[in-house]
Amino acid sequence: MSSEPETDYEIAKSVEEQPIWEVTEPFGLDKDDLELYGDYKAKISQDAIDELLEGDTEDGDVILVTGMTPTPMGEGKTVTTVGLGQALNQIGEDAMIAIREPSLGPVFGIKGGAAGGGWSQVLPMEDINLHFTGDIHALTAAHNLISAMLDAHISKGNELNIDSRSVAWPRAVDHNDRALRQTIVGAGDSAGVTRMDEHVLTAASELMAILCLAEDIEDLKERISRIIVAYDEDGEPVTAGDIEAAGATAILLRDALRPNIVQTIEGTPALVHGGPFANIAHGTNSLLADYVGKKMGDYLVTEAGFGSALGGEKFMDVVSQLGDIEPSAIVLVASVRALKYHGLDMWPFEGEEVLQEEDVDAVEAGFENLDKHVSNLRQFGLPVTISINRFPSDTDAEIEAVREHYQDMDGVQVAESTVFGEGGEGGVELAEKVTDAVENYDGGFEPLYDLDASLKEKIETVATQIYGADGVNYVGSAEDDIAQLEEMGMDDVPVVLSKTFHSLSDDPAKKGAPEGWTLDVRELYPSAGAGFVVALTGDVMTMPGLPARPAAADMDIDADGTISGLF
Ligand SMILES: Nc1ncnc2c1ncn2[C@@H]1O[C@H](COP(=O)(O)OP(=O)(O)O)[C@@H](O)[C@H]1O
Ligand SMILES: O=COP(=O)(O)O
Ligand SMILES: [Mg+2]
């Protein structure tokens, strides 16, 4: 290792971690409240969760970190969440953070880990990016138990008269493996029914969403039993409860339901729990982690995936209406590289090198995208602070251009953040501006739609007011799906729109703030256990694929267990 640690892994290994109970103690959790997984990782015990949630401690303020439409590399929401949490503690506040658990898919794929980076990471990063406390493995096992019980039912008498062509429950795996997108199961099993099947990434499993929304074991089991796994010959839904899978599935998730707690590089307590992506699911960590976090701290900094039109919108229209949580302030992460990516209208993505050359004109041309995210977020009645996440190649002229463009804009403030390179110290301006915004917040938060609006009204509200579409085309099975959902009484729930994260529109090639287009919704299906409806647009993959040379190709481990290539 060179004198100065350089990679995320080297920086993480250069830090002396504290025993996790010493990190949580000042925030009200002592060693007896934790179920230790070694000295640096723990789950919070059910008794401690119950005590926190039933206690009369006032909830802290929730700061939601979202972002502009990102390059495929990501623009630093997780880094900013960790860095801002550290910065708030540096300025004397009691702040917690809550983030999602990384999936092995992107870790070994393109994007790499999701434990932050530089001097704003959660530790132990290699555990968190790999097996952590086993929650995602438990989810995968639980998901596939339902699949196995469903196929056993179909091939052993099929008492429920399931139409094997209408199975609605895929299999799951926690890898980006395009070869598993469409599969044939039951081949060669003489008693079995050979049928088409598919695999989703575990992050896209409805069980992941359920784990992130369930409040206790009873709620978990009840949600699982509501999962629609297939339809019978009369088109009636068949649930996981109908095939008697709810109890066993809940057993497999018993421990996974409890939030994990670790620490940041600077010793800020970090809840890491659940991992739905925001393009194919609702995109934020578990409600239980949020509930515990806002009891433990005066501030809870949490992130929602991809750009604000995906994770941000879903946090405020879906999560805040399904759970007891709402933000008091928004941090909108912007980067010079993403502004240039939009300003240069770059698609397909040509790599970060092109975006590292100084180009103030391209930065200014990219404001179209960031302006749209600002105006979108202001519709929710929340104060917005733009955090310019400074990368090493950014120049003062580029940063100044961003500051100038937003410093006099109504309803928004701007701060430069160097938390990647400097940890909490690099986020003091951001922390001071965000706490100021929270203090002056008038409590005007409102989701964009009421739950009693029709499914079409909800979809059209998001499409026109957030994505910038002129309207919505219902193609494929969408109209029939809506009719069936209304008949099932699944129309008074939030809608999770599944859409590309590369654009505000449903066309990944369109950068900036596309106008004069219509959103195509091609299919809708119920997530009856999670309590929302998913609407599919474009050709978003619930099973991403690996590139020809994935990040995994550069990973290695040496004789003493030192890992390289994990970032
Ligand atoms: N200011 C920065 N300088 C250098 N690298 C950064 C910076 N911010 C983020 N990164 C890196 O960019 C990638 C995306 O950051 P991340 O916080 O995961 O983004 P997001 O959560 O928005 O997807 C990670 O590899 C991270 O380490
Ligand atoms: O769901 C996506 O999350 P990130 O934007 O943090 O990668
Ligand atoms: Mg992230």
TrEMBL record:
Signal peptide: none annotated. Belongs to the formate--tetrahydrofolate ligase family. Its EC number is 6.3.4.3. GO terms for biological process: tetrahydrofolate interconversion. ATP binds at residues 71-78. InterPro entries: Formate_THF_ligase, Formate_THF_ligase_CS, P-loop_NTPase. It comes from Halodesulfurarchaeum formicicum. Pathway: One-carbon metabolism; tetrahydrofolate interconversion. The gene is fhs. GO terms for molecular function: ATP binding; formate-tetrahydrofolate ligase activity. This is Formate--tetrahydrofolate ligase. It catalyses: (6S)-5,6,7,8-tetrahydrofolate + formate + ATP = (6R)-10-formyltetrahydrofolate + ADP + phosphate. The lineage of its organism: Archaea, Methanobacteriati, Methanobacteriota, Stenosarchaea group, Halobacteria. It comes from the Archaea. Keywords: ATP-binding, Ligase, Nucleotide-binding, One-carbon metabolism.
